[in-house]
Amino acid sequence: MAESPSTGVAPPGGAAGGERLDRPTIVLGLVIVSGTLMAILDTTIVNVALETLGRDFSTGLSTIQWVITGYMLAMGTVIPLTGWAVDRFGGRRVWMTSIVLFVLGSVLSGAAWDIGSLIVFRVVQGLGGGMLMPTGMAILTMAAGPRRMGRVMSIVGVPMLLGPVLGPVLGGWLVQDVDWRWIFFVNLPVGALALALAWWKVPHDHGAHTAPGLDLRGLALLPPGFVLLIYGLSTASSGGGFGRPATIAWLACGAALVGLFALHSLRRRERALIDVRLFADRTFATAAVAVFLVGIALMGSMLLIPLYYQTARGEGAFAAGLLLAPQGLGAATAMPLAGVVTDKLGAGRIVPFGIVVLVLGTVPFAMVSADTSYWLLGGALYVRGLGLGCTMMPTMSAALTTLGRAVVPRASSTLNIIIQLGGSVGTALLAVVLSRQISDRIPQAGGGGGAAGAMGRLPERVREQLAPKLAAAFAHTFWVALILTALLILPALLLPRHGARDRDAVPDAPPTG
Questions:
Q1: CB-based contacts of 117: which residues, under 8 Å, 6+ apart?
Q2: How far from 147 is each of 84, 152, 402, CA to CA, in Å?
Q3: What is the pLDDT of residues 138-147, one digit of tens each?
Q4: Which terminal Cβ of the chain has fewer Cβ within 10 Å, N or C?
Q5: Model pTM?
């Protein structure tokens, strides 16, 4: 196969080009990282600003979490369009258009005048950011070939797991010493650099671009289904919890739309937004479940940890960002080794180990108090980072290595949808649990999800008196996160235990149901 029909990028070396990445592929990978880093940084930058945003806009956690959830849902909504858009317009055009749309959303978010406008503009941002990762992954995958998938994923995964190092620190400094609006305006120079590099190095697409008709029915079923499911979760923070009739109705409607989409996809097959026949491949289906749970573990913790430091411990945004950095450092330590091990021995040998490490790193947070040592928590975050580095990208690599090259772009798109959906579910679910725990322990905090926002308005003396109850609420919520993380071991044990060198070739035929 000389050229990818989806990206127009010829695979230099391909599967036969050896296991080492050649210089052009590495340079292309760095160009792709410059764009994806912008989108990933924006997620982690905003996490440390939630307490400030809640205070400035006089709203609580159940509302303010939509600044993150809306962004991630928008990313998940537009990801299914990536394959069609790349086939129709070419990878280079889609990549550069996505950067422009993301920067436009950043400017609008920085100019937001109330919480409603901020959430809407974050959705615009997400629509641009959602196409960056799958387009970049498809370009790099076709350039490197399937035998070097682990190394490719290690390059693409750098912004996903280094973001927690740079994002919280940069975001904390901007929020505390400049203005929260600059957590969005900072994307202007980064976006300009990414656009210039893309113009310089992303290959031009040759030949006519043709694509099957856009799946409008799928577009009307799947994204609204996701939105209704997440919105239903977020409404559970009010009295009655998940037993509220309104909550049940939202969840049921969302599940019904997703179910109808699955039936529609079986009929439309590869022309659907998501080809559900991909899940007939056991390795892909297993890895998809694991990726969903990784999204919950990663994004859920990125919501909870900075809020704990700011509300229960009284730290500023910059200090909270610095205290989060060990997790990203741990991930950066583990990822290069994890990519090599995945290529040589298979994801089934590294991912279960990573999950055990991830769970061990989460235990101290499930036992956190109002005066837990920062050294202990920093060490735990580093251990969590090691676990994430051994889990996320090896799992995504395993999902793609048993598929035919013709379906890799669609499969990459599906995996990115799943991880964004997992992050959205994790953010909404843990925000609900935390809100209810705080309002149960401190009714005067503003019940029903206003708690975290109210904490920012409490005098320091009052906050110190409430700190033990706040810490207990966070500890209970971290137990939920710990259980969800531990569930990862079930799909991880089913991942393949052989590396790329043990496979003669990757078949070109897509899976069929």
A1: none
A2: 26, 10, 11
A3: 677 666 665 6
A4: C
A5: 0.78
